Amino acid sequence: MRIRPGSLIGTPTRARPHEPHLPHPPRRSRSTRKLWTAGLLALSLPLGLTATAAQSSAAPVPLTDGPGALRFEDQFLELYDTIKDPANGYFSPEGIPYHSVETLIVEAPDHGHETTSEAYSYLIWLEAQYGKVTGDWGPFNDSWELMEQYMIPGSVDQPTNSFYNPSSPATYAAEHPDPSAYPSPLDQGVSVGQDPIAGELTSTYGTADIYGMHWLQDVDNVYGFGNSPGNPCGGGPDTEGPSFINTFQRGSQESVWETVPHPSCEDFSYGGDNGYLDLFTGDQGYSQQWRYTNAPDADARAVQAAYWANQWAAEQGNASAVAATVDKAAKMGDYLRYSMYDKYFKRAGDCVGATSCPAGNGKDSAHYLMSWYYSWGGALDPNAGWAYRIGSSHSHFGYQNPLAAYALSTDPALIPDSPSAGQDWGQSLERMVEFYRWLQSAEGGIAGGATNSWEGSYATPPAGTPTFYGLYYDEAPVYRDPPSNQWFGMQAWSMQRMAEYFYESGDALAGEVLDKWVDWVLEHVTIGSGGDFSIPSTLSWSGSPDTWNPANPGSNSGLHVTVTEYTQDVGVTGSLANALSYYAAATGDTAARDTAAGLLDALWANSDGLGIAVPEERGDFSRFNDPVYIPSGWSGQMPNGDVIEPGSTFDSIRSFYHDDPDWPKVEAHLNGGPAPTFEYHRFWAQADIAIAMATYSELFGDGA
């Protein structure tokens, strides 16, 4: 199948009893893997053949440098140098990775020189891979310190945690599907559960502060809030350097095009009379406050990278070089457990009715999955005496990370210090792997996820909704514009981690899921000559899974996925090649191995001096004119003076875009011209490709 160049590239991403698994096969030792992986041959697919047509029955022959896998190590180092070259624009003066080199880009971040916790985690992973290849672990340690300095709020940035009461974590406010239903009133009449891990964390680390990344940062202070780390509310438009900000706040239909950016430290300097707070929550009075939101997949990716850094440094006889950083990763994993809990710590499972679903007691509010976020905040006034913490009721398969859970529950260097953390992550690991199996379609793709709070308000789900340990199936958890499970990138990202976990553990259930998923994927990958290739882009879903029975999982014969569009998204392709490489190394699957090599070759053929990129047509940029819902009677200003009022649009509250050198291309489209085309260099995408190259070389090169 031919693709439409640039089609939907970079689609936005947001923002019980212990059941045994099937018996695990014996884990293949590293030495055994080396004996047979050294005999695998890397071949690009013939012109026009799909991956399934490239199955080879020929006996594997040894790889050699040049025509074999070792060329990918050279390409890794070349791409690494390109990314790290200051002249190429991937990093800020502080060394922070931008979302993209280009500034005019709207995805989950709504400006290219914002960044995300995702980007920081990819930098850490990239540097771990660099340490594996070169033996130099300084950049890996430095990347963690950079993240710790700029993306984990310090004590001064979260100043009133000492007032947090685990018996009363937060005040309930219902979520609503549409932004027009906001602000959502705070409701003291709805009971919330107890936070069962706060005391343990405080006792373990001697502080009430949270050790986790906030998810979004305005690196160049383009918006002008000036919420810089260490000076959370003391900045403004003239402040240089990174600023903590937030965007999404108003339900599953709020796309990035309908958001109102706002500061993480709210002292009413900008916005309306109450800053931005009364756009989101309804209250009798508003307090100046700080608040942060964690993206659990990013923190887990950082833990994943630390696991490999520890393994690789130990193989080099130099585990001490990364020991301090690995210990910090274990600490991050300790706090990451907040993502396992229902938003308001209500009982996990069969939770219907905001007032009737009981408050959680102990750990019965844990669903043990990695949910979409956890969040924490409190008063700016040190005498005000309040702080809050919430988990999330919504879990997407794409955020799960079984490799991180495996590390945090089995690796002595990464099991967190809190007494119950290792056990919690062990239970989470089993729950995650079951989750993938529950959500696997008849074809092999993995469906969306589940929620403990239907529509975010503990509403009654439709009759017959399938359940997973009492959680309700949700085809598109968290956001629906666009649907959160239509982008194939979620498949590649998440199943890459699953493949790493299977490679390390030999978990039979994980292998069962991967076997079917890889077969499905290979049917939809085409590799031609040079840089010609296509992978899935847009997925369409129908039906639903069977209600989960761990003793007798259903076939999910009524759950189906269709690939409706294809793409050359370079970052997703890198992640897919990585996933196929680990799967091939674990199973000996030659089609997966050869497809991974073919995709990496095709990516390299699209090198352009700044990295690897292809043209992307952005028809969605017509939404610069989308209205942003502002309640009647509300008015305020952005720091640059842009007016916020009913009738405001995405563009009107971001007038700085008109000064961007690429703005004329968008303006022409808004005036009736064709959709603009860009070649974007996203940091995460370049890192994903580089990591995949090093991975393939490690797994299949001479001496692997």
TrEMBL record:
Superkingdom: Bacteria
Keyword Signal attached: yes
Full protein name: Glycosyl hydrolase family 48
Record's compositionally biased regions (Polar residues): 161-170
InterPro entries with a match to the protein in the record: 6-hairpin_glycosidase_sf, 6hp_glycosidase-like_sf, Endo-1-4-beta-glucanase_dom2, Endoglucanase_F_dom3, Glyco_hydro_48F
Stretches for region Disordered: 1-31, 161-184
Example GO molecular function: cellulase activity
Keyword Nuclease: no
